[in-house]
Structures are given as structure tokens and as C-alpha cells.
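task queued by scheduler; priority normal; single chain, no ligands, no partner chains; default sampling; output format set to C-alpha cells
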Amino acid sequence: MDKKANKKYQDTVFVDLFGREEYAVELVNALCGTVYKKEDIMNVTLKQLLFCERYNDLAFLTRDNRLIVLIKHQATINPNMPVRMLLYIAEEYNKFLRGEFGNESYNVYGRKIVKLPTPEFFVIYTGEEERPAVEILRLSDSFSTKAPIEVEVTCYNISKELEIKEKSSSLSGYSTLLQGIKGFKRQGYDLAQAIQKAVKVCMEHGVLTEYLVRHESEVSDMLFQEYTVEDVRRMYMEAAAEEGWEKGLAKGLAEGRAEGLTKGRVEGLAKGRAEGLAEGLAEGRVEGLAEGLAEGRREEFHLTETIFKMLKEGKDVETIANLCGVDRKEVERITELAKILAN
């Protein structure tokens, strides 16, 4: 299998599979307890591909005016998912009001109430972190006081036994495919081999057979790219965290010593030195580590975002290094990362 970048396949397998109407209607029915037919739902997924990201979301408008939003998560569940869903549904409503779904357009400044599609939000979690089979994330958890708005997101961990998997053979098959890849990787196979073997086993056992037979090479390419991007992102985050931890440790030790000496002088030179240094070092390490870690991450991500933007604008490495005030090697490192993530 040639694993070079293939610009045609920017979707993930999740979006490619469940973006097809025959699989989409089955999944929507399983999630909502409905009996829709293919002609009863319309794919209204937003196409807003961000730099170095891939499509992981789907949205469907139903004949009875429901708006179903699905997002697949491969890594850790994001507690801010209700916020993201709120922003997503706002853009969907903008398109609905403009009449872009084949409906009439509406005037929100008029005297007649506009009947909006009722939203329902779901996350399909496929990561390896231990999570409940079903959990609810709420927008209200993001507010410091009670607010007159709520968004609830139902998260399904498809590595667990779930009723929706019994109702949707395609979702169950998708879960089997992913679990197969993870299983073969644990046995020591590299990613490409694990994907090939998992796809072959699924086809031999009647799992997603029709889809895989028709799209085997595309599926393998998409799986390889999304797993590779996820691995690179994870390594990048770990490296940034480690650098932030080291900066925080150094800063914490320095601040702890200073604070300990100050407290020691106030309480008494002899007793203060001992108690102040101990307390200062302890508090300084904790606060410094946390502050340094956050600061390190912010600085690293801000620099990376800035360099990504300059690269998209066509600026060369030397120019970017001068403008950002960083070493050329640092710009080259981030340039290589951008190339990997863009593939």
C-alpha cells in the first residue's frame, strides 16, 4: 500500500461510512429510536475543514424537523464538547434561516415565530481511555452561575456493549474494525499491517462487507492517515507538556527559595529558614510546575499557530525565523510537523 498523502480522502472512515445514506439512516434510527427511511433525512454536514484537521462530524436534518449532530472522537473526550456543539448548531441555524437546505428562508426580525429544527447532539467515542458506556456532557457545567441555556451531548463509548450497536449493524461493524486494528497493533504489527489484517478479517466474517469490498483501498488509506495524524498530534502534545514541566520546575524552585527565605526572616532567622524554605519549596514547586506547564504550552502553541499561518502565506523559513525571533532550526522543526499533519 502506498501511504503517501492522498488529497482526495480528507474525510475519516466514520464520515465516509455514515455519510452514505444507507448507513446514515440506520445509525440515526439507532440513536433516536426512530424508523426513518433514506428519503426522510438530509445530510447537512458543515464543510469547514481547518488547517491540519480532518472532517470528523456529520449532521442530518430529518423530515420531522430534527437536526442530528454527530462527532467522532478518537482521543480523550473533550469536556468542552457542548460549547463546540453550540457553535456548530449556530452555523447550521444560519444556513437553515437562509434557506440553504431546500427550505424557505426566514426573517428572524419579523413578527412570526420561526420554527427551528430541534437539535440532538451525539459523540461517538473510539479512544482507548477508560470511559463509561454512556455519559452526558452539559453546557451548564461551563458557567459559574445558573444560566438560561443548556446543551446536552450524549457520548457513546463504542468499545462497550451498547444497545445502539445492536440496533445498528454498521456501527457495530465500525467498532469491530477499529478494535481489530488496535488488537493487531498490540500483537506487534505496524499500523499498515494492522489495518490490512483488520479489514481482511472483517470481510471474511461478514462485517461491513459490502462497504469494505467496494472501498477497501480508500478505507485503508483513510485509516492510515487518521491514525498517523493522531499519533503525531499525541507526540507533539507530550513533547510540549514535557518542555513546560521542565520550565515550571526551574521557575518553581527559584520562586520557592525566594519565598521561603522571605517567610523565614519574618518568623525568625533560625526557625524561619528551615520552615520557610520547606514551605516555599513545596508551594513553589507545585505552583511553578502548574504555571510553567501552562505557560510552556501557551507559548509553544502560539508560536506554532503563527508559523503555520506564515507558512500558508508562503513565507520562507529564514523570513519566519527573523519575524518570530526564533532559531531557524525551530522553524524547520515546525515546518516538518506542518507537512506531516497536512498529509
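post-processing summary
- DSSP finds ten helices and six strands in the chain.
- The radius of gyration is 25 Å.
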